[in-house]
Amino acid sequence: MSTLAVAIASDHAGLDLKQLLAQELKSLGHEVADLGTHSHDSVDYPDYAAALAEWMKKNPGGRGVLICGSGVGISIAANRHRHLRAALATNGLTAALARRHNDANVLCLGARLVGSDIARDCLAQFLATGFEGGRHAKRVEKMS
Fold first, then answer.
1. Of 7, 42, 57, 106, whose CB is crowded by the most CB atoms within 10 A?
2. Contact at 8 Å (CB) between 67 and 109?
3. Is 101 assigned a catalytic role?
4. CB-based contacts of 5: which residues, under 8 Å, 6+ apart?
């Protein structure tokens, strides 16, 4: 697997999982941009999705990881930005299919719903899987 630029961000509910996955990314040799949050104080997840969207504009080949309590809110917030294709994954297969069929460039996780082992598997599949193209390409174009 080649080295990727990956930005990671979370709200307060996702902080611990964000820190764990940021370390995982670094141990795999990826360039990591930690966009916050950096404490357990309550924050608003749309702000972190917006920060990641700005980072992705400046790093168009990069990937992103977003985490909140359920993963739902932050994935909705992320998908408000047309250049993001954020997918909420609950296991490695959904993460792989999001890349293969939807060319997802942002992985969303729910810290209160997935454990660290499942989150690591989701991340591994998200990073290792390529976009299949073909019949999926026109569908992805319609979303962009």
1. 106
2. yes
3. yes
4. 30, 31, 33, 59, 61, 62, 63
**Chain segment 13-47, per-residue pLDDT in tens:** 999 999 999 999 999 999 999 999 999 999 999 99
The four Cα atoms 89, 94, 99, 100 give a dihedral, to 10 degrees, of -170
Name residue, tokens 């792989």. 96
Q: What is the pTM of this model?
A: 0.94
Q: How open is the CA angle 13-119-42, to the nearest 5 degrees?
A: 10
Instruction: List, for residues 63-77, the tens digit of each pLDDT value.
Output: 999 999 999 999 999
**Domain range holding 107?**
5-143
The one catalytic residue in 12, 38, 81, 101 is 101
Active site residue 122: no
